[in-house]
Design brief:
The complex is a heterodimer of chains A (506) and B (275). Chain A has 506 residues and is of the alpha+beta class. Chain A has two domains: 97 residues, Beta Polymerase, domain 2, CATH 3.30.460.80; 316 residues, Cytochrome-c3 Hydrogenase, chain B (Orthogonal Bundle). Chain A contains 17 helices and 14 strands. A four-stranded mixed beta sheet of chain A has the order 1-4-3-2, covered by helices on one side. The model of chain A has no long low-confidence stretch (mean pLDDT 91). Chain B folds into two domains: 62 residues, Alpha-Beta Plaits; 147 residues, 3-Layer(aba) Sandwich (Rossmann fold), CATH 3.40.50. Classes of the chains: A alpha+beta (506), B alpha/beta (275).
Chain lengths: 506, 275
């Protein structure tokens, strides 16, 4: 895989490799090296290969382990590297693999009660051929015996305009004893949808995995394809990609603050956050024709050029309002009271369970792909990465507030440096990957987003696309902050994580 | 708290007077679904099917005689057809007000004679009477049946101070028992089918259904496959269809008002009136 150090392992060596990774990382959470994801992929000979992707450190290439399971079985690494737990369960559901010694070998992506034979992504079954029947069965949760313990299943259809998911609470009085988010009601088989598609269609699909992260997904996909093909997007396209990515962060973070204010019952704060989000979406619409900045990023650059001459002025019109809004939130005691000490995520848990983006940075893990593995034109932009120590809801909102200010500064710097030129180019500038595989990464609004892309032999179609979605990572972490907290704080804590369900479910 | 009240008052009115009085709809520059000009299409002569091949949602098809058919219920507005068409028959447009009561109105057969209205049935007159009673107070229950969250983002925007949906007598309600309209987004995943049907069953009659976004109207790029249906067809009786990926807030308002007969439908036979 392009930009990666690859090691081929056999199943017997896997546990030892995990042990040596743990030794390498030492006792304290490292700021850089970490397991990122694991996924399965069909091979030309009809077998299945499991691929583990690890980050090493700033500006070092990613590490890749490739293993061929024996008899559809591999040893589970979830006890050593807990964040792999969900990735292994996903492979059990979709590829029919077994992971020996897995601590929670339950269905994840395909719910209990959904037919799982044959596994949808394992060959020769055509993953897009039929709709599956679904008969609901309760999720597997710890047995609860006390007579005073309430069991509350909330969802999948919940109050308000929200995404579908079910939350199971076991609580006594106000205190939450156990919390189980049941996701994947929205699993749409998005990764299967890429298979067999031409490269340019992949970008259209990537934009529709998580609508509010359209740019990040299209960009991570495009960079993965460019790596595999040896293409390099022209300079103007790379500058414009930075502007698009930061506009996306801007409207998302403003929405986040509006929603967080809603949960602390700060009505005017809610209205103002959502109004500012609307103003940015309208700027997006004028600039690109799409309020979600869709239809531009594609492998090779951008589909068309943009006129950014009015952007500076449009941002001037809201910059001061945004500043005042942030200051006012930070001086409202009733709002801060509800955020401080709510939903504390310790640094070690954040690291072990795979927290990413503003969530990990609020728990004092200083990682940001824009700085550590620069893509597009981030290497030429000056910006700082806000980090907080507290790990509570307040720290999470502070990180996002600072990122709003940084995003505005990044856009302004970039506007000044964007020179006229072409925006789309398919010339081979670097050595293409011999296997036709590429890895693309983006620091999306919600954290590290990775696309692994495997191309067909003639390099015109997609064979397999794996998406490591930041919300998939952060949903795994979130329950650790809920247990032992109370029902009154739940909505605030959930809002402070700023999770997307469409992205996690795919 | 008082500081916020003062701050809110000081900011003045943020809400647009649109659509009741002239004012900005907030969609300057926002692209809609592509327009098709059959007169420019050369498929009948040359057999060119570039648009059919480029469409990732199978919204465009061509028959043996070279007649191109566009099913806007499946169109995600990716604009790829406008980029590949050698004759410029497909062009970008700002036609986003695509809410229709009859799904057949979303199919463009490229015919030169453009229908300007869908014939009214007796059923339609009765329905219009019924809806009139709800014209000034409609309560909506939204169900996400597997969207990408783009539709939710725009539905949430309806409640921001710019659109301020409540001023139009349209409200979202948490309980299906108080709801008049079921607004569905997403292609309907296998796991959401049952909860969706149970929500519909819980609603008192008379009740209506709106399919919002291309996933719900026809599956788009995300429908089908092992985990999804192709939208609401064959799952629920739909009263208003609104394709768009996602439909913007103004398009959502227009479609709700089309349902209530407070705005005329602007798309007939797959042609937008401004085309």
């Amino acid at each position: 895989m392009q930009h990666c150090d690859t090691t081929r392992l056999n199943p017997a060596e896997l546990l030892a490799a995990a042990d040596s990774l743990l030794t390498e990382l030492g006792d304290t959470p490292s700021a850089h090296g970490r397991m990122q994801m694991a996924y399965a992929c069909g091979c030309a000979d009809g077998g299945i290969e499991v691929i583990y992707v690890l980050s090493q450190g700033a500006n070092l290439p990613y590490k890749v382990w490739r293993v061929r399971p024996q008899d559809h079985t591999l040893p589970s690494l979830a006890n050593k590297l807990p964040l792999l737990g969900w990735y292994e369960r996903e492979m059990m559901d979709l590829y029919g693999l077994r992971f020996e010694g897995h601590p929670e070998p339950h269905p994840l992506v395909l719910h209990e009660g959904e037919p799982r034979e044959p596994a949808p992504l394992a060959k020769p079954f055509d993953p897009l051929a039929t709709t599956r029947d679904y008969s609901p069965q309760p999720p597997i949760v710890p047995q609860v015996l006390g007579p005073d313990i309430q069991r509350l299943p909330f969802g999948p259809v919940r109050a308000d305009i929200v995404e579908s998911a079910q939350f199971l609470f076991f609580y006594i009085g106000e205190g939450i004893l156990h919390y189980h988010p049941r996701l994947f009601y929205k699993h749409r088989a998005m990764e299967a949808r890429f298979q067999g598609q031409p490269l340019r269609v992949g970008a259209v699909l990537a934009e529709r995995v998580s609508g509010i992260d359209s740019v990040a997904h299209a960009l991570a996909y495009a960079q993965a394809v460019e790596g595999a093909m040896g293409w390099r997007a022209p300079a103007r396209a790379r500058y414009l990609r930075v502007i698009l990515a930061e506009l996306e962060r801007l409207y998302n973070h403003l929405h986040y603050l509006g929603h967080l204010s809603k949960t602390t019952t700060l009505k005017v704060g809610e209205a103002e956050g959502h109004l500012l989000e609307e103003r940015v979406k309208q700027i997006n619409g004028k600039l690109t024709g799409s309020r979600f900045l869709r239809g531009l990023v594609t492998p090779g650059g951008l589909r068309r050029d943009l006129d950014i001459s009015g952007l500076d002025k449009a941002l001037d019109a809201i910059n001061e309002e945004i500043d005042r809004y942030l200051d006012r939130l930070e001086s409202t005691r009733s709002h801060l009271d509800r955020l401080m000490t709510t939903g504390i995520l310790p640094r070690q848990v954040a690291f072990d369970q795979g927290a990413t983006g503003p969530i990990e940075r609020a728990s004092n893990l200083d990682r940001d792909l824009r700085r550590d593995h620069p893509y597009a034109h981030y290497a030429k932009v000056r910006f700082s990465v806000p980090v907080q120590q507290g790990g509570d809801a307040h720290a999470r909102s502070l990180v996002r507030m600072e990122e709003i200010r940084e995003s505005l500064a990044i856009i302004r710097q970039t506007i000044g440096r964007t020179k006229p030129g072409e925006v789309l180019r398919f010339d081979v500038m670097e050595d293409p990957d011999p296997q036709g595989e590429g890895l693309g990464w983006v620091e999306a609004t919600r954290g590290g987003l990775l696309y692994a892309v495997h191309l067909s032999a003639d390099r015109t179609r997609l064979l397999r696309v794996k998406i490591k979605e930041p919300s998939f990572s952060n949903w795994r972490v979130f329950p650790f902050t809920v247990e032992d907290s109370n029902m009154m704080d739940y909505a605030i804590n959930e809002a402070s994580f700023g999770l997307s369900i469409a992205g996690a479910d795919r | 708290m008082p500081v916020w009240t003062w701050f809110g008052l000081q900011k003045g009115r943020a809400t647009t007077p649109w659509p009741e009085r002239p004012g900005p709809d907030g969609q300057d520059g926002v692209l809609g679904l592509p327009r098709f000009d059959a007169a420019r299409c050369s498929t009948a002569q040359t057999g060119c099917t570039d648009c059919v091949a480029a469409c990732p949602a199978s919204a465009i098809s061509a028959n043996a005689a070279g007649a191109v058919r566009i099913d806007y219920a499946r169109c995600v507005g990716c604009q790829l057809c406008t980029e590949v068409c050698p004759e410029g028959a497909f062009t970008v447009s700002h036609d986003w007000a695509f809410g229709v009561r009859d799904k057949a109105d979303l199919v463009n057969r490229g015919n030169a004679i453009v229908p300007t209205a869908t014939p009214q049935t007796t059923n339609e007159t009765e329905l219009a009477q019924e809806l009139k009673a709800f014209g000034k107070s409609l309560h909506i229950r939204h169900v996400d049946a597997g969207s990408c969250n783009g539709c939710e983002s725009e539905l949430q925007a309806l409640l921001n101070p710019f659109y301020n949906l409540h001023r139009l007598g349209l409200f979202f309600t948490p309980s299906p028992r108080f709801a008049d309209l079921l607004l569905v987004t997403g292609p309907v995943t296998a796991a959401m089918r049952e909860p969706l049907l149970r929500t519909f069953e819980a609603m008192p009659q008379p009740r209506w259904v709106m399919a919002a976004g291309t996933c719900a109207t026809g599956g788009g790029t995300n429908g089908g496959g092992y985990a999804c249906h192709n939208g609401l067809d064959g799952i629920l009786p739909v009263d208003v269809w609104l394709p768009g990926c996602p439909p913007n807030p103004a398009a959502l308002i227009e479609a709700l008002l089309v349902l209530l007969r407070r705005r005329p439908q602007r798309v007939h036979g797959g042609h937008h009136e401004s085309a």
